[in-house]
Design brief:
118 residues; mainly beta; Jelly Rolls; three-stranded antiparallel sheet; 11 strands; 49% strand
Length: 118
């Protein structure tokens, strides 16, 4: 396997109406055969759609801001420094609360993360 460093401003960028994801590590990027890792920004007051990952677990760590994260039938209020572990197949989504755009890092237990929208 080739070891690669990805600079802060580099990576595969996906823009959405609710925010953006900058992928840093994945099978598609060619720098992992076992995980996916990225940085997510959600615009203040916005939320991503409810979804699940049928082939991998997800761990997210909130770097800044605040989130309301639904996981199954539970709601977690998250602040900077909080970490959430989401098992594969569980429906979830994040909503930015407050006036600042929350930023988090996300990691998945597959280099080829699958997403199913609810």
């Amino acid at each position: 396997m080739i070891v690669k460093a990805t600079r802060f401003a580099k990576g595969e960028i996906q823009n959405f109406p609710w925010g953006k994801i900058v992928w840093k590590v994945s099978g598609k990027l060619g720098n992992s055969e076992s995980m996916t890792f990225g940085r997510v920004t959600i615009h203040a007051g916005q939320s991503n759609s409810k979804h699940s990952h049928p082939n991998c677990d997800e761990v997210l760590h909130l770097i800044s801001g605040r989130l309301e994260h639904s996981v199954g039938d539970k709601i977690f209020l998250m602040k900077r420094g909080d970490t959430l572990s989401i098992p594969r197949g569980i429906i979830h989504n994040a909503k930015a609360i407050g006036k600042k755009d929350p930023v988090m890092v996300v990691a998945y237990s597959s280099a080829y993360r699958e997403t199913t929208q609810e």
